Amino acid sequence: HRVAILISGRGSNMKALVEQARNYEVVLVASNKPLAAGLAWAREQAIPTWTWDSRGVEKAAWESALDQSLEDHRVGTIALAGFMRILSSEFTRRWAGRILNIHPSLLPKYRGLETHKRAIEAGDKISGCSVHLVTEELDSGDVLAQAEVPIHQGDTEASLEARVLEAEHDLYPKALAEFVER
Ligand code: GRF
User: Formyl transferase N-terminal domain spans which residues (predicted)?
Assistant: First the structure.
């Protein structure tokens, strides 16, 4: 099964998806940030990459160029991994049921940004991460898999982020593997 990963930055989830791939193949890593650290890593692994700086570019033009690259690489499933650009409803409809995302909270709690800060401020005892289908509404598609992570006394945003990120690296490859088998 041919998978593309979309990133905007560090790419630690992308790395986990590549390193733990069993029943799928990462055939493309694409980014809206040419300097994303994850892109350099993907190139080192000889994974094909595609990038176009999306700043100041019309979304439809950017997405149709991406689409062309996805088609060229015969991609079946897209995995968003720290991809920070909201996809248009045209794009998400065209790829309906074939785009996954990982989000650092137990959805439906804390859609959007600053999830760890919000969980700590709310006094939550448990946080975690969710793999979900991407629809036109942000962080709102069907949840495919979740992992819980405890919030400890004295946790900071950074310490909680690190604990949740570790769970993400375990959850996402498993959820994607199950997804492509379905
Ligand atoms: C992760 O926390 C992911 O859940 C969120 O963005 C972050 C990306 O980190 N969507 P990385 O680029 O995979 O290291």
Answer: 2-176
